[in-house]
Amino acid sequence: MKAFVVEKYGKDGVRAADVPEPTVGDRDVLISVSAASINPLDKMVRNGEFKQLLKYKPPFVLGHDVAGVVTRVGSAVHGLEVGDEVYARPRDLRIGGFAEFIAIDMDDVAPKPDSLTLQEAAAVPLVALAAWQILVDRARVQPGQKVLIHAGAGGLGSTAIQLAKHLGATVATTTSTATEKLVGSLGADIVVDYTKEDFSKMLSGYDLVLDSVGGANLEKSLTVLKPGGLAISVVGPPDPGFAKQLGAPSFLGLVMSMLSRKVRKQAKALGVRYQFFFMQADGSQLRKLGALYDSGKLHPVIDSTFPFDRTLEAMAYVEQGRTKAGKVVVSMVPDND
User: Rounded CA gap, 30 and 21, in Å?
Assistant: First the structure.
């Protein structure tokens, strides 16, 4: 089958290749891929940023989001059948959405929301799961709480705004002038144009900050939290909890403790908390999220769609910061550029 594989770690390490179709285990479903989408995590894995923790062995197929049609099921699979339209974020070490076929553990797969096309559904799994796991599982956002979501026009930000509003939160977000109206239409109550204004001088008393920018932005985010408030970052620095989540050796836990020592110390001095977040595959959560898409509470924001044979261009488009809002999708359907 045709696929895009990481041949070696680094910026130029991905190439188109013909590779064997994946084997299908007892608990697996084989999916004919209709569409995939690009995530920042693809670049990070390609560059080997997690190679001490996620031990991929090149060559391996890249791609963390997928939507398609079930073509085969393992002997132990239940609840999914050949012909079902599904979507998934395959678990770590079993990624491979940039291919014609992918075998995925049944626990990671869910029926595609009826209201979404396969191309739209491919834009959803990773960012929707991340938003759910941050807002519902970690932060347990309650009605009336105040949530700041950075980069509100991005794939994660645009999803998190909608979910936070569904949970009853008051939502502030940062974005550029060009996307102020978009994030407002998604439900943001307070919109800060980061090209003109400093959010840390405008906002205070927040229960939660979701940071996808990092660096000085993360440090400033700590100052807008109320006492006991929580800042969660998806771009780091990683903390000991991340090493524990991945079952990493204790020495890596110490390394991550050192990497995040500065920001954790700053948080403690302010009486607030900092956590790093790395999402996990979960088909049961995708079923819950699918119901929210079908009810109109959530909808995907898609910037553009590339044909499958231009997957490398799609990755470069995202990496160069050319995305205006939402996700970039790669489609197996021809003439869907």
Answer: 9
Question: Distance between CA 235 and CA 40 in Å, rounded?
Answer: 10
Closest CA to 243 of 233, 253, 235: 253
User: pLDDT band for position 332 (50/70/90)?
Assistant: very high
Structure tokens at 103: 């075998």
- Distance, first Cα to last Cα, the chain: 22
- Do the Cβ atoms of 120 and 39 come closer than 8 Å? no
Cα separation of 62 and 96, whole Å?
5
For tokens 């080997």, the residue is: 48
> Once rounded to an integer, what is the mean pLDDT over residues 66-94?
98
- For residue 21, the SS3 value is coil
The mean pLDDT value for 179-188 works out to: 98
- DSSP assignment letter at 113: P
Residue pair 210/149 in contact by the 8 Å Cβ criterion: yes
Cβ pair 189, 164 in contact under 8 A: no
Let me know: does 91 contact 66? Beta carbons within 8 Å: no
User: Nearest to residue 92, comparing CAs of 47, 45, 135?
Assistant: 45
Q: What gap in Å lies between CA 33 and CA 35, rounded to an integer?
A: 6
Q: Where are the beta strands (DSSP E) in 77-215?
A: 85-88, 101-105, 109-111, 146-149, 170-175, 190-193, 206-211
Q: Which residues have CB under 8 Å from 166's CB, separation 6+?
A: 292, 297, 298
Distance, CA of 330 to CA of 115 (rounded, Å): 19
Rounded Cα–Cα distance for residues 217 and 204 (Å): 15
Please, are residues 226 and 207 in contact by the beta-carbon 8 Å criterion?
Answer: yes
> Using one digit for the tens of pLDDT, what is the confidence trace for 42-66?
999 999 998 888 889 999 999 999 9
Give residue 337's pLDDT band: very low, low, confident or very high (50, 70, 90): very low
Inform me whether the pLDDT recorded for 88 exceeds 50: yes
Beta strands (DSSP E) in 222-279 are 225-233, 273-276
